[in-house]
């Protein structure tokens, strides 16, 4: 019997080493994610805050089960035993730049870091930062392949497809997710400010929303299958069309 897959275990097809031949980032992406001004948004304690940012990233990386499920295509993940799902198109989302404060609750610890997300219509750019604004990893999805660049120790062991799976379950439109999830044998429901993911009668994940003008002000994502919780608080939302 196949052991339960984990979002924080290596997926051989999803991990790609950084190389000199990796495609360069668009200029707008580089300027957005190379900034360190987010440090002023949080109360920090120098080097200790940087170490805690690394710990937050690494704690997620190391929360893994003993077994490894069969490898999948690069943009596909295991959401439950015998239920693999391929990510929805990036084009389902509006063109936005979003900054979020993220809190990860694992069985034995709680950590905080910053997420910077840029949606350009045909691609997604995501960076995870320590509270001081130091980059932990950068992830690019152009709808065909994932380009993942780690900067923190052990971040090279991360399977980036699972980060995007959580992000999409939290934020992508219901109609963009439901058909693909149904094809995987899963069921997505949404009522009021709550979204739920099911495999038969078993609840796999739950998402609760506090509304915002362009982007939810607060999202609570609980993965019951993997036993972790993510809470995101929106700090800034900016339409890309109006960015200088």
Furnish the topology, listing elements before pairings:
Layout: H1 27-33, H2 47-61, E1 76-80, E2 83-86, E3 96-106, E4 109-119, E5 124-129, E6 135-141, E7 146-150, H3 160-171, H4 174-183, E8 187-191, E9 194-199, E10 202-210, E11 218-223, E12 228-239
Antiparallel strand pairs: 1-2, 3-4, 3-12, 4-5, 5-6, 6-7, 8-9, 9-10, 10-11, 11-12
How would you portray this structure in words?
Strand 6 (135-141) and strand 7 form a beta hairpin. The protein has helices at 27-33, 47-61, 160-171, 174-183; strands at 76-80, 83-86, 96-106, 109-119, 124-129, 135-141, 146-150, 187-191, 194-199, 202-210, 218-223, 228-239. The protein has a single domain, classed as Clam (outer membrane lipoprotein receptor (LolB), chain A). Residues 1-50 and 53-67 have low confidence and may be disordered. The protein is globular, with a radius of gyration of 17 Å. With 244 residues, the protein is α+β, with helices and mostly antiparallel strands.
């Amino acid at each position: 019997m196949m052991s339960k897959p984990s979002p924080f275990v290596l997926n051989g097809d999803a991990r790609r080493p950084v190389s000199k031949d990796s495609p360069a980032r668009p200029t707008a992406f580089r300027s957005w994610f190379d900034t360190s001004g987010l440090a002023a948004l949080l109360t920090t304690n120098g080097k200790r805050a940087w170490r805690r940012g690394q710990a937050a990233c690494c704690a997620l990386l190391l929360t893994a089960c003993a077994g490894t499920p069969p490898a999948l295509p690069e943009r596909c993940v295991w959401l439950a035993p015998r239920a693999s799902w391929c990510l929805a198109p990036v084009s389902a989302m509006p063109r936005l730049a979003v900054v979020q404060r993220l809190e990860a609750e694992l069985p034995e610890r709680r950590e905080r870091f910053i997420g910077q997300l840029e949606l350009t219509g045909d691609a997604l750019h995501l960076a995870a930062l320590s509270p001081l604004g130091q980059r932990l990893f950068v992830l690019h999805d152009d709808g065909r392949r994932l380009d993942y660049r780690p900067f923190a120790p052990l971040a090279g062991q991360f399977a980036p497809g699972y980060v995007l799976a959580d992000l999409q379950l939290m934020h992508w439109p219901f109609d963009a997710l439901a058909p693909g999830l149904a094809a995987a044998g899963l069921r997505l429901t949404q009522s009021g400010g709550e979204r739920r993911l099911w495999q038969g009668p078993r609840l796999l994940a739950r998402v609760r929303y506090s509304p915002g003008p362009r982007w939810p002000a607060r999202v609570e994502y609980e993965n019951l299958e993997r036993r972790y919780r993510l809470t995101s608080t929106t700090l800034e939302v900016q339409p890309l069309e109006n960015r200088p």
